[in-house]
Amino acid sequence: MAADPIHQFQITKLFTIGHLGGQEIAFTNSSAYMFLSVAVISLLMIGAGRQLVPGRFQSVAEISYEFVASTIRSTAGSEGMKFFPLVFSLFMFIAVSNLIGIIPYTFTVSSHLIVTAALALLVFFIVLFYGFYKNGLKFFKLFVPSGVPIYILPLVVLIEVISFFLKPVSHSVRLFANMLAGHIALKVFASFVGMLGALGIVGWAGAVLPLGLTIALTALELLVAFLQAYVFTILTCIYLNDAIHPGH
C-alpha cells in the first residue's frame, strides 16, 4: 500500500495546556518543533563563543549574522539595521525549521499556511505601523509612484493599494507552497522505493530510478530550505524599506 504523502503534515495534540473561553489550548507536534528550532538556534548563538580564532559553531554564527546584516544594508540601507533582530530571527527560524523538517519522520513547521501567514502578518503590521510612525501621512507616498501621468494616477493608486494589502498573501503562500510541494514529491518518490523493493529482485532493479530521484530531491530540498528562508528575509527587508523610505 502506498504511503500517504499528506500524513507527514498532520498536526497531532501532545497534551492540553488549558482552556480559554471554552476553546482548548493544546501543545501540538507543530509547537514542539517550533520550540526545537528555537532551542537549536539558541544553542548555536549562545554556545558559539567569542574566540579570536572561531571554531565551527562560531563560524556558522558569524556567517549567519553577516549574511543577514549585508542583506538588510543592501535592501533597506543602514537605517534598516534597527530591524536586524526581527529579520535575523525570521531567517534563522525559517532556515532551521526547514532543515529539521528534511530529517525523516520529523515535522516541517513552514508547511502549514497558518504558520507562514502569522510570520507574514507580523512583518506586514510592523511595516504598516512603523511607516505611519516615522513618516505620518507621507507614508501614503508609497501608493503614488512619481512620474505617473495624472489621467491614469487613480488607477495606478488603486493597483498599488491592492498590491500592498496582498503582500502578506504572496509572502506567506510562497514559503508554504514550496515546502509543501517539495515534501510531497519527496514522500511520493520515497514510497515508490519501498513498494518496488518489496517485489523482489525485479523490483530492486526498478527501484533504482526512484531511489536516485529521492536522493536528488533531498539535495534539492536542502537548497530550497535555505533559499526560501532567504527569499522570505529579502522580501521582509524590501517591505521594511518601503516603511523607511516611502515613495523612493
How does the major sheet shape up? 2 strands, antiparallel
Shape: globular
Number of helical stretches of at least 4 residues: 7
What low-confidence regions span 5 or more consecutive residues with pLDDT below 50? none
Radius of gyration: 22 Å
H and E string:
EEHHHHHHH
Strand element count? 2
How are the strands of the biggest sheet laid out side by side?
Answer: 1-2
Descriptive report:
The protein is mainly alpha-helical. Helices cover 68% and strands 6% of the residues. It is built from seven helices and two strands, in the order ββααααααα. It has helices at 29-46, 56-76, 84-102, 113-135, 153-197, 201-206, 208-244, and strands at 13-20, 23-28. Strands 1-2 form a two-stranded antiparallel sheet. α1 crosses α3. The longest helix is centred in the C-terminal third of the chain and has 45 residues, at 153-197. It is a multi-pass membrane protein. Key component of the proton channel; it plays a direct role in the translocation of protons across the membrane. One of its GO terms (molecular function) is proton-transporting ATP synthase activity, rotational mechanism. The chain crosses the membrane at residues 32-49, 83-107, 113-133, 142-166, 186-213, 220-241. Belongs to the ATPase A chain family.
